[in-house]
Amino acid sequence: MNTQPIFPERLPESQIIDQLNAAMYQVAIFKAAIELNLWGKVAAGHTTVEELAAAEGWDLNGTRMLLDDVCTLKLLTMEEGRYKLPSEAEAYLLPGKPTYLGQFLASEYSWEGNGKLAEAIRMGLRPIEYTATNAESIDTWIAVYTRSWAAPETYLKRCDALWEALGIRARDGLRVFDVACGPAPKTLPLARQHPGVHVTLLDWERILETAGKVAAHLGIAQQVSFLPGDLWSVTYPGGKYDVVYLGSITHFFSPEENTRLFHKVYDALAIGGAIIINSVRRENPDPMAPELWFYAVSAGGAVYDFHEYAQMLEAAGFHDIVDVSDQPIKAVKR
Length: 334
Description:
Layout: H1 15-35, H2 38-43, H3 49-56, H4 60-72, E1 77-79, E2 82-84, H5 87-92, H6 102-108, H7 117-123, H8 138-144, H9 146-150, H10 156-166, E3 175-179, H11 187-193, E4 198-203, H12 205-218, E5 224-228, E6 241-247, H13 255-268, E7 269-278, H14 291-296, H15 306-315, E8 319-323, E9 329-332
Helix pairs in contact: 3-4, 10-11, 13-15
């Protein structure tokens, strides 16, 4: 007869699982509030449960519980019986504001195809819901980089430190090419350091319009030129640039695709020029950008480590490949 106890004498805490369980509830609450435009209704003056339920025809109990639960998320506050928007909600959750993130967040809830991620892993069928590198994703990327284009001063010091770590100093005649630039949060600060730096930005036209506004805001519009289009179809000028920057893009592509992209970059660089890769790396997992998201929104993307990037870069002809602070990778064209 087996006399072993069914359970061990001491069970470990389920803290991580409990946190994940709470997060699932929080996401459901947040999603419902976005779909109902809760913050817009409160900002319009419906600041009590009764006013909001009556104005919208909503269930009174459900309205009260939603408002209270959003308060626990700290995206509403209550003062003297009335609900108010905190500064974060006012900045990012009011439709019509250029910094509105609601549409982006609502679309991102379906990144895994509403339950199709497990099947995609079983069968290898991807992308699941959308492709992050298609032109149809422009609105998503504008939203992702909201703080970068709406408040560029917030990241200037961090970017200066990045270029210093890379050993790249702003100087007269420095030519920089930012591929898939977004609002160019890393290369525009480099141009700001010296009036002789010139930056060429490549991205879809609507993205470049946003980047142009950032450049104008920083007072460096005259140092910036634009190359609109898709990074694969656009012809890169040959042997022209001292630095080519690839930020947050290579994790959307397969090793074969990245090697092809690195070949294009190699041809665009002057002798002695450097490629900079600043993407999410396996050595530094980012909970805000999990590996499976890149898997789900691309046909061949993945998160790579330094050794894997080094192999791709060597295949494209690069030398002196170095890992800078476990994040950016720098390699040189000889």
